[in-house]
Design brief:
Blueprint lengths: L8 E4 L1 H4 L5 E5 L4 E5 L1 H11 L4 H8 L3 H13 L6 H8 L1 H10 L9 E2 L28 H9 L18 E4 L2 E3 L5 E6 L2 E6 L17 H6 L6 H5 L2 E6 L2 E6 L6 H7 L7 H9 L11 E2 L5 E2 L1 H13 L7 H23 L14 H6 L7 H20 L3 H18 L11 E2 L1 H15 L8 H25 L4 E2 L1 H13 L1 H5 L2
Helix pairs in contact: 3-4, 12-13, 13-17, 13-18, 15-16, 16-18, 16-19, 17-18, 17-19, 18-19
The structure holds iron/sulfur cluster (SF4).
The site of iron/sulfur cluster (SF4) has 12 residues, from helix 8.
Length: 496
Amino acid sequence: MYRLRSDVRLERDPAAAAGGGGWRAVDPALARAIKLGDSDARLLQALAGGATPATLARQLRQTPEEIHTRLAALARLYLLQGKRAQLRVALQAERTGFAKQLLQPAQAEPLEWLTGADPPRHACQGTGTCCGATFLGPLTDADAARVRKLTFGTRLGPAQHGQAAAVLRLGVGEAIGPEQILESVHRDGREYLGMARGQDEHCLAQGQDLLCDIHREHGSAAKPVACRLFPLRFYRSPLGIHVSLLLACDGYQRARAAAGAWPEREPEIRALLQEGAPAPRLTLPFELTPGLPLSSVEWWQLRSEFQAAEPQQADAHAWLLAIVERAHLEGQRRSAALAEGSEIDILPRLEGLAQALAQPQTTLAPQRTAECADQLDQRSHDLLRRGARHDAERLADLRLAVLALQDGLALAPRGNFSATAEALRQLSDVVANDVQAHIALGHLDAGLRTLTRRLLVVEALACSLARRAGRAEVAAPDTTRALHVVYRSEPDIAAL
Ligand code: SF4
């Protein structure tokens, strides 16, 4: 017998009532109101007094399979009476407490560093390749005001100090004023300011030597927060601020070797947070998949088990496989414990990941591979025509990665390539870096699917780059380049 939660009210939706239809389920315990169509409302009405799948199928004239699917959808929304909903309601207090914690300034929160056998780390080596991203921002209001007042660009001649507003001189007689040094993009109805880019898509403040003129002439602190932030990445959770990396630095091999211990960066990180560096918050409660919630304490415990599974010798595949298997087991255990009835079996969507890790060529359908490769080729040529060489090369390498994945290019024992210890460590960094907070940004199963695909593409591209250089051994420059391409191409990879 399935029942609607007794504290959920079914009522006409006032917003839709004028149009003559529409219902909503008002759920005070979870502080929400869910819009419903007429057929969902009929189902919930039938459930208000309790119903079996057989009576529902008769009443609603649907097949048993359709009824099971609809009951599972209601369970995922925590609308059915049972342990699942009880747990979710209990976890609402955690969500409310975290919302209050978010009112505290980010810079005052504890910092949580990357951990592990040899955690990923970074010390800027000034390669300047970060200054050629598709968007160089967003700038804070203070950034925009400061940059507009600066004078810089001495690489092209003596500075014109004393001018009312900053100019960047591109050549004799050519000057860019304070307005043109910034560009704006519109996204989701909002305007964001970034540093303007030239025809080659690089920042106008970047010299021929790839160094930043603002940094050279005014010091690091004068640069926009987004520039100083790269490649750091922050997330807020009940534990404080989690610090990780966007593994997209073209000089990662050198930057990793030169870096000190993470806590040495604490003053710099607190200053960045104080100046408005973004720190997206993780969504509470954590969920293995919609309908399988877990408390923060349970997630930290599971996460420490994921971390403890790190092999002694860097092996990203073995590590990720152990994590996927552990998550699958946890999903099965929770699903059985929380089921409202035998018809409902909600599991994390992890199927296929173990097979993809064993046989990378099963990741993409052949037809999809051909389409993606053609699109990337076309876009790469378009960018090259516009003079955006770096982005054109990035997409050309991403095309190579897609083809390499399809060909099953991988490290032994799945493929024919060996790798240096440094290259293996960089591949392992993908797991170490992303498993701690990034996969918890949404549902954990979706995070693990993204992480698996990312790792497979990085590995396939690294093997492909080694093959292009006539080697059967992947070296650290190959993995550094592959990381740069993949982390810079996240929307393209998500679309594969
Ligand atoms: S302002 Fe400087 S650091 Fe920032 S993108 Fe431009 S050149 Fe790079």
